[in-house]
Design brief:
This protein is α/β, with parallel strands linked by helices and about 300 residues long. The protein has helices at about 5-15, 20, 25-35, 85-95, 95-100, 105-115, 125-140, 155-165, 170-175, 185-205, 210-220, 260-265, 270-275, 280-290; strands spanning about 40-50, 60-65, 70-80, 120-125, 155, 230-235, 240, 245-250, 250-255. The protein has 3 domains: about 35-160, Nucleotidyltransferase, domain 5 (2-Layer Sandwich); about 170-205; about 220-290, no CATH class. Strands 3-2-1-4-5 form a 5-stranded mixed beta sheet, with helices on both faces. It has a two-stranded antiparallel ribbon with strand order 6-7.
Length: about 300
């Protein structure tokens, strides 16, 4: 019988060569040897038209279901989102309108997805930040109520962040090949930060070479929103309301959440006029005032 180290060696070999040796080992068997499963564990990933669950749609879903007895099942499907896929998103995942024109809409595959997720725990990468909110919205649009609260979540991205430190000392080891000396001395930390940045410029030739461009590159999430209070967000080149799901202010009854600023300026100017009289930030009021004068800001370029 092989020793424990020999077993681990061959598990690594067969795991790395899974496609060639799948008749000998499955990922489910390997996972089972490392973490016993009480109920199925489903790893999933989504591709979509964007990152706003209330506005965007899924264009592809893939799931791998691992069972307590070591079996593995897979499911994948392209999804017709019923809307155009923005070209900047196509540049990321490579899925075009042509690729999904004959694919089923999500409501047609939703029962299968529910079947796979029911009674299972869930795994993924950035699961809670993206996949679950997107799935929840798609289920709602399909008229399905699915409760994720009983599921335990295995988020590899969270494990990554918690186990692989992202501090200045780690950066010095990665980029400079040496430990940080005199840590938490202000000048030592400042000098080390500058040295790390120089090393990053050398390592990444595609890193922008202008301060403004680096700012935009490192604040990509911020370029999703037009203001620091995140009341307006960009979607398909237009500003949309990121608040106001329920509005009951005399004659201002309705729902402006998710509507474009241009649409509200045309059809509900009273709401914008009301905003000008309230305690919104000067940044927000400048946007609103511009909309009332038929002036709308252009989106800031984002880097991927």
């Amino acid at each position: 019988m092989p020793t424990r180290s020999a077993k681990e060696f061959w598990i690594r070999i067969f795991s790395a060569k899974y496609n060639r040796f799948s008749f000998l080992f499955s990922y489910a068997t390997i996972v089972k040897s490392m973490i016993p499963l009480i109920r199925p564990l489903v790893f999933l990933d989504l591709e979509s038209t964007g990152v706003w669950p209330e506005k965007d749609r899924i264009v592809e879903i893939a799931m791998i279901r691992l069972t307590p007895d070591g079996k593995e099942e897979t499911f994948e499907s392209r999804v017709n989102p019923g809307m155009k896929i923005p070209k900047e998103v196509i540049a990321i995942h490579g899925i075009t309108d042509e690729d999904v024109k004959d694919a089923p809409t999500f409501d047609r595959i939703a029962p299968k997805v529910v079947e796979w997720l029911t009674g299972a725990d869930l795994g993924g990468f950035s699961l809670e930040r993206f996949d679950l909110p997107m799935l929840t919205q798609e289920f709602t649009r399909a008229g399905i109520k699915f409760d994720f609260s009983p599921c335990f979540l295995v988020d590899a991205q969270k494990v990554f962040v918690l186990k692989e430190r992202r501090n200045l000392e780690s950066a010095c080891r990665l980029y400079l090949g040496k430990p940080l000396e005199n840590a938490h001395s202000a000048m030592a930390d400042t000098r080390a930060t500058l040295d790390v940045f120089k090393a990053q410029l050398e390592r990444y030739p595609d890193l922008p070479r202008e301060v403004k461009a680096i700012h935009l590159f490192t604040h990509q999430e911020e370029t999703t929103f037009a203001d620091k209070t995140r009341l307006f967000r960009w979607w398909n080149g237009e500003l949309h309301f990121n608040f106001g799901k329920v509005v009951r202010l005399g004659s201002l009854q309705g729902n402006v959440y998710g509507k474009s600023l241009r649409e509200v300026a045309q059809n509900n100017r009273g709401y914008l006029q009301w905003m000008m009289t309230r305690d919104f930030s000067p940044e927000v009021k400048k946007i609103v005032e511009g909309a009332l004068n038929n002036q709308f800001p252009a989106p800031v370029a984002n880097f991927h």
